[in-house]
Write a structure and sequence with these properties.
The protein contains 3 helices and 5 strands. The chain is elongated and about 45 Å long. The mean pLDDT is 85. The chain has 101 residues and is an alpha+beta fold. The longest helix is centred in the middle third of the chain and has 15 residues, at 50-64. The protein has one domain: 2-Layer Sandwich (Translation Initiation Factor Eif1).
């Protein structure tokens, strides 16, 4: 399923106008680098335009009950919410993988 137009992958027309950056898999990981030991959940590879990315980030923050931001196309959610985010994204038709350890 295409997350943008909600059509089957074979019938998707938006991928011809907006090619998927990368391999089309969203990666969800955890990072503490440069945050004084505080962990954040990192969501990379989301194939959405910036306005839809902002809406998705708001939904994820609401779902996790945490703060967060978008930096250079990467969604950062405060805390370790990898499992919650992966389930939410899979239910919304995205291909998701856990990155890191």
């Amino acid at each position: 399923m295409c997350p943008t137009c909600r059509q089957p992958a074979g019938a998707c027309r938006c991928s011809q106008t907006n090619p998927v950056i990368g391999d089309g898999v969203i990666r969800v990981g955890r990072e503490t680098k440069g945050r004084k030991g505080k962990g954040v959940t990192i969501v990379t590879g989301v194939p959405l335009p910036p306005e839809d990315l902002a809406r998705l980030a708001a939904d994820l923050k609401r779902r996790c009950g945490a703060g967060g931001t978008i930096k250079e196309g990467v969604i950062e959610i405060q805390g370790d919410h990898r499992d919650t985010i992966m389930v939410f994204l899979e239910k919304n038709g995205f291909r998701v993988k856990r990155s890191g350890g």
